Each structure stands twice: as C-alpha cells, then as structure tokens.
Amino acid sequence: MGSDDREAAGRGVPRAHAIHADPGARTVECQPLPEIARTPPESKSPAKWAYERLILYIKNFEELLDGDHEIAMGFTGASAGVLRIEGIGYFDPDIVTFYGSDADGTRTQLIQHVSQLNVILRALPKRPEVGEPRRIGFRLAEALAGDQAS
C-alpha cells in the first residue's frame, strides 16, 4: 500500500494505485495525490471528476515524451484514428470534450459521455512547422491549480 493509500483510507478521499513491469515507472497512480484528488468525488460532477483525472494522466504522459513528440489520443472501439490533443473540457454533469486535429490536420472534436470514456494516449511526431512540441498537459494542470485556488 502506497503512502496515498494509507492517507486516503477511511476519509472518503479517492485512492490510487498501480503495478508496473518497470518498478521505476512514473505512473500517475504511484505519485503523491495532488490537491484536486484530495477533494471527495461526491462533491464533484462525474464530468469534472473525469476531467481532473484526465489532466493528471495527460500531464504525466507528456512529462515522459522527448522533444520530437506530442500527445495525441486514439479512439477506443472505433476506426476514427487519433486526435492530437489541443484542449479538453467538461460540461456538467456528465460530458467531457476533447479538442484537436487528426493526423491530416483536420480540426476534430470528440464529445463523450463520462460513462463511455475510454481513451488511449499516444505519442505522435510533432509537426515539422512547429518549433517546440506543444504541451497541453502542463497548461491544463496550471489552469486546474488556479481553479482550486479560487
């Protein structure tokens, strides 16, 4: 049981845990729970709760990327391809929205009910015309931290 498991036990605060083949792997579940995860999920809509946790996964995934790749997501259970993540949002009580573009650069938006939420995070080569890879996870995490402060 990790420290967060012990801290959260019995307080109505969500727990997180993961086992990985690489004992040094940096998974979201094995890191200290951020402040947003310390708020009981009962006080949030399913959409906001899914949105906040997705941000944690996206940020962690981007932290592991090299300078030649950007984050994208694949659609599970569909042949729609991938979406280069350029934004994420939610609409209470139960909708999560992903904004971005597909592999051809076509503007794309996925609107999904939280009960259908299944995403695959993927690393795509950054576009040649872009100097530095864009890191949406860091911007999302900053905005989320700002929301918690207000």
What's the structural blueprint in terms of helices and strands?
Layout: H1 3-8, H2 46-63, E1 69-75, E2 82-91, E3 95-101, E4 107-113, E5 119-125, H3 136-149
General description of the model:
- Helix 2 packs across helix 3.
- The protein has one domain.
- It is globular.
- A 5-stranded antiparallel beta sheet has the order 4-3-2-1-5, with helices on one face.
- It is α+β, with helices and mostly antiparallel strands.
- It is built from 3 helices and 5 strands, in the order ααβββββα.
Tell me briefly what this model is:
The protein is an alpha+beta fold.
Largest sheet: 5 strands, antiparallel
Can you tell me the overall shape? globular
How far do the termini sit from each other? 33 Å
Element order, helices and strands?
A: HHEEEEEH
Unreliable stretches covering 5 or more consecutive residues:
1-10
Mean pLDDT value: 79
Beta-strand content bin: 25-35%
Helix/strand/pairing class, anyone?
Answer: alpha+beta
What Rg do the Cα atoms give?
Answer: 16 Å
Number of strands: 5
**Overall tally of structural domains:** 1
| Number of continuous helical runs | 3
